[in-house]
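Sample pair:
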Amino acid sequence: MARLMTGRRIMTAEEIRRAITRISHEIVEKQAGTDGLVLVGIQRRGVPLARRLAESIESHEGVRPEVGALDITFYRDDRARLGPHPVVKGTDLPFPVGDATVVLVDDVLYTGRTIRAAMDALREFGRPSAIRLAVLVDRGHRELPIRADHVGKNVPTSRDEVVRVRVAEIDGEDAVDIEPLVEGALS
């Protein structure tokens, strides 16, 4: 089924680049440096965003925080909707999270359920001294008491809209669009 692009662009590649730079400065400021700081991207688009944040921190601090990837597939509260053979993207945490300040990185914050699942998954690897959240887009509509510490852009949306984040590493371009929710359409 083909879909027509009827959305509107809310962030260009340049706006995404500037948001990553600003968030990287905020993370270092809140941490008072880079000691004990690790970045963990939530699969899928949170991983390249976490890597970009690490690169940005390295460019202004001279130290690159370690970056990991977290797959939350088996921690989701809607696993049944994923079907009998969910696609597992893999967790890679090549560093201890115990006693670290972990900044979870994701592309869009919506209901908060993904972040709750990520915190549950992270707990399997140790007890961080703190967990913070950095997101590119916060679209509202929380169902759980979760908020981001660092936000690229706050965007009020309706529940019949979808925020589509595209990153060059996965999608071949950097952009964020809001599109109408189309039932039965392939994403």
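Residues 138 and 155 are 6 Å apart (CA to CA).
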